[in-house]
Amino acid sequence: MTWPRSELLAALLAEEEAEALVVLAGSSRDPDLAPFVGGARLGEACVVAHGGGAWLVYFTSMEREEAARVEVGGVGLVSPADFGLETLRREGKTYEEILAAAVKVALDRAGVAPGRVALAGRPAAGIAVAMAGTFEEGGWKPVSGRGLMLALRRTKTTGEVEDTASAARATVEAFERVSRVLADSSVREREELWLGEERLTVARVKALAAQVFARHGLEQPESCIVAPGEEGATGHSTGTPQRVLRAGESVVVDLFPRGLLFADCTRTFCVGEAPEALVRAHGLVLEALESSLDAVRPGVRGWTLHERVCRLFENEGFAVSDRNPGTQTGYFHLLGHGVGYELHELPSFRKTGQGTDEFVAGDVVTIEPGLYDPEAGWGVRLEDLVVVTQDGVTNLTPLPYDLDPRAW
Length: 408
Known about the structure:
The chain is of the alpha+beta class.
């Protein structure tokens, strides 16, 4: 079996006029290494890949069973014995020298002749510099592989879509639990929300979601957002843990757990009677979301959809980012982003730059319009995670959009 992205990698390397891709990673948690190793748990590792296949180098025999899992995905192995790890250590070689020896064996296995080589991964800065020098000494010309790797990861395989969908199902469950807790809360003095005999704080809501994710084996490497009132009005405030939620205010809840890949979803709640301005904004954001979801399909650009939402909000009197760069009120972010091994990746909804071309089937993106008023102290964002299909999208986060959690 050949690594499934080999054909695409060959095309991308040809565009870069590079002979191979080399990924240097501190562990299998590195988003550039993960597509090669799947769910295998590894420490220090590297990969050499080109159109003919991919080879993983691992550095401890204790990980041989984990490393063996990658062979199922069509990736060859270079073991510590293959590059003489113990001999190199007895000779007092530095880590960089050992890594260089390991990569050389992998390059030989891959049949790579000296030439341009694209470097990706997240190695420590010193290691990256040392390895770049080693490549140059060996006749290779190292170039950045960041853009190539993002393009390689963009369109998801069937297995990657299922992993994303699995994380999204847990996200849906977490939202259902959060909505029930908000609906069951009581309002006491100073409009504070209480659950049982304790105040309902940002930290308590986050803990509820975290319990769901833990039960599903998911992580939250970038935390999550539970941002009430004035905190939600800034867009990406994660919420002050001890802040007590109150009736009549917006609560922006943005959850983005990770299995092998990330999921991402946002809803906005309000317990009790919502201010008229908040209700109006929520209705406009929902209109923007639904119309955008209907328009996503192959051949459409994210920027085109973003501009449409800008015009909708602008016509309703709100500041928008394409006319008012740097605005901190109204609509000040993009309509969405790609999701995968990183929370934000390609395709891009920007006007120009890498990944701003038309959507293709297999893209996984968020659609997340929002409106914010820091002076009035409210924010609204609604976000769904979708897979682009041949004729539209599959929504991975099919949840209610109601402001009132009792309507869920």
